[in-house]
Amino acid sequence: MFKKNKEKNPPSQAPSIIDFLIDLPLFDALQGNELTVIARHMNYFELEPGELLFREGDKGDSVCFVVEGALDIYKESAGGGDVVIATIAKRRSIGEMAIIDNTPRSATVKARTATALVSLTQKGFEQVLEEHPKIGITILKGLSRLLSMNLRKTSSRLADYLLPLG
């Protein structure tokens, strides 16, 4: 999990969290006031290059969105070393499953460059669901689309590496 002491208020020259959320496909079905509700539950923080966001096996309790910079996603190889399996940059998210299923992180994530992020915790999301069910359902639909898209990409990449059966 990311370090709480890295959380900050966005710098005054940075776009607001709402301005950032407008451009994310996950929130594209939400209107202005609905985005304001979500933004109230988000935290802004920064990581230095090489700094750990979270480690594989950590408790997952938030989804993070890259405002600026890039993150490397690592998995441990059969030989025991870490392998970069993906790099994500601006407007991409990491940890979507964490606000739904309460399972440990499936990969290690470190900042490739100086990176600014906003996060939505599982607790914050549950509060939105309780207090604003329509907004919560809209976000759940967006998460479902995002997870489905990620699964399709992963399946396609896996197929490229597998030998045909038979």
Overview of this protein structure:
There is one protein chain. With 166 residues, this protein is α+β, with helices and mostly antiparallel strands. It has helices at residues 17-22, 32-39, 98-101, 122-131, 133-161; strands at residues 7-8, 42-47, 52-54, 62-68, 70-76, 82-89, 93-94, 108-111, 115-121. The protein has five helices and nine strands. The strands form two sheets. The protein has a five-stranded antiparallel beta sheet with strand order 1-2-9-4-7. A four-stranded antiparallel beta sheet has the order 3-8-5-6, with no helix packed on it. It starts with 6 loop residues before the first strand and ends in a 5-residue tail after the last helix.
Task: Please identify the structural class as seen in this structure.
Answer: alpha+beta
Number of domains: 1
> Which regions have little confidence, pLDDT < 50, spanning 5+ residues?
1-15
Strands side by side in the biggest sheet:
1-2-9-4-7
Distance between the termini: 44 Å
Q: For the residues shown, what is the average pLDDT?
A: 86
Shape summary: globular
State the fourth-level CATH superfamily: Jelly Rolls
Q: Beta-strand percentage?
A: 25-35%
CATH class, named: Mainly Beta
CATH architecture: Sandwich
Instruction: From the 3D structure, determine the CATH topology.
Output: Jelly Rolls
Rg, alpha carbons: 17 Å
DSSP, total strands? 9
- Please summarize the sheet with the most strands: 5 strands, antiparallel
Secondary-structure element order, N to C: EHHEEEEEEHEEHH
**Number of helical runs?**
5
In which range does the helix fraction lie?
25-40%
